Amino acid sequence: MLCDDCKNKPASIFFKEVLPDKTVELHLCEECASKRGLLVTKKLSPVEILHKLLKQQSAQDERVICPRCYMSLAEFKRVGRFGCSQCVATFDEHIKSLIKQIHQSDRHVGRKSTPGTKKGLEVYKLREELKKALEREAYEDAAKIRDKLKGYGIEDA
């Protein structure tokens, strides 16, 4: 059966509307159905967008290689993750549409940093003190330092 609108393509969408006084049946191709607004295009999630990109592999993908980590575009499409920070710039021309769909922007900005504490530096200093205390064989001091480290959530001290 041919499309009722264009009369050229085969009808793949069958639309039936029942009104109080009549029933309307339309047999449309996908193009004519979308022109009438009968087909709704779903917004893809970032995972679905990435999956779509992964399916679109070409012979050129093996020749586009990151100069820092030597990951090819084809490998990125298989794995779904960049090998290093340079990959974003290297594959830029090939993934612009992907980045725009995921970030609603033309460039990848990464995660926003959150203001942290000086916990890392304090833990580092405590570990150094612990090493020195153990070298001096001052086990009581080492136990106190170990307990302080446990207060930071460091269990391997």
If you had to describe this structure to a student in words, what would you say it looks like?
The protein is mainly alpha-helical. The radius of gyration is 30 Å and the shape is elongated. It folds into 3 domains: 1-41; 46-103, no CATH class; 119-151. The chain contains 7 helices and 2 strands; from the N terminus they run ββααααααα. The relative contact order is 0.07. Strand 1 (13-18) and strand 2 (23-28) form a beta hairpin. The mean pLDDT is 79. The longest helix is centred in the C-terminal third of the chain and has 17 residues, at 119-135.
Strands, count:
2
Instruction: Give the count of helical stretches.
Output: 7
Beta content: 5-15%
| CA radius of gyration | 30 Å
In whole angstroms, how far apart are the ends? 76 Å
Content-based structural category: mainly alpha
Main sheet makeup: 2 strands, antiparallel
How much helix is in the residues? 40-55%
Task: Compute the number of structural domains.
Answer: 3
Report the oligomer.
Answer: single chain
The largest beta-sheet arranges its strands as 1-2
